[in-house]
From TrEMBL:
Name the UniProt record assigns to this protein: DNA-processing protein DprA
Protein family (similarity comment): Belongs to the DprA/Smf family.
Domain DprA winged helix: 325-374
Domain Smf/DprA SLOG: 88-304
Pfam families recorded: DNA_processg_A, WHD_DprA
Amino acid sequence: MVDTPEELGAWLRLSLTSGIGNEGARKLLAAFGQPEQVFAQSESTLRQVVSATQARHLASLPDGWAELTQETWDWLQNPPSADTACALVTLGDGDYPAPLLLIPDPPLMLYALGQTAALQNLKAEQSLAMVGSRNPTPQGQANAREFARALASSGLTIVSGMALGIDGAAHDGALLGAGVQALATIAVVGTGLDRVYPRQHRELAHRIAQRGLILSEYHLGTPPLNANFPKRNRLISGLSQATLVVEAALQSGSLITAKQALEQGRDVLAIPGSIHSAQAKGCHALIKQGAKLVESAQDVLEELRLPDPFAQVPLALDVASTGVDSEDELLPLMGHDPVGLDALQARCGWPTARLQAQLLELELMGQVGRLPGGLFQRIGSA
């Protein structure tokens, strides 16, 4: 980990130098050693490794470098709470996560917030990436939480991106299921770690830092830029032995993560959904292309060749519903696909007022979700 302001300043200067990037920085480090040695070279010597333009840029200080160095050093020295820590690990550092050294484009620097002592012990075979839609169906959200809870209970660390929807549910489920001393979950974000994005996940981010890690390759102050999120996905898949896609449309960013997992030699798994749901079509496409179809946490553990400490944990939709009034026959009639009020009324034959009242009651009980377009969907419960 970075230990002095001078060391920090050299790494930040290298990463901020225009036109260098991760690839150019790796070439320079391979040729000269630490960043301090890079900046000690003459421009003519640097031109033997990088282009003349890059060598010229290395000779000048990047804009904002001094301010960022001071801001970052202050952040490292002042963690947000007594039981969390801030750290900055650099390529070649002993604490740098070993799984990321195996991906094609490892980040030059990695900011960490939370249980940073776990960084040096991260192993891909102990982690599973879970990704999916930012606008999931109620069933998809329930599946993400229940799968994550069951898999974290089995000892896996759940890795995701702290986005709305499936990501947030996966982190939450992992925190619910993981043992007290376990590294429950890792969030890889697309902003600087001095901000929480989306804001709705401020409380979730705090909980993750208490029992897991939040990681970013982006400098403090980096805003939520669209280009950063697909790029960070390679780290989500790279930290994990496999990627489970819970729910995704055909154009979902989750499919980018799945593609990167395959390019990294990792497995891809997918949960099927309703043939009528646009949010399931990305998963169905992955399954057609060879992704492992999973219906339970046990399926995941078997695919990863891990022992299952529990009996089979099925999809949330397969667990018998409880707490419904004895006279209610609505849930079986709903099935598991989204359904409109008119279609549901045709199935049950109930007066509109009774049907709407029962749907509201089931919604308040968390057994039915209300979808856009006046649709309703049954939600399984554990």
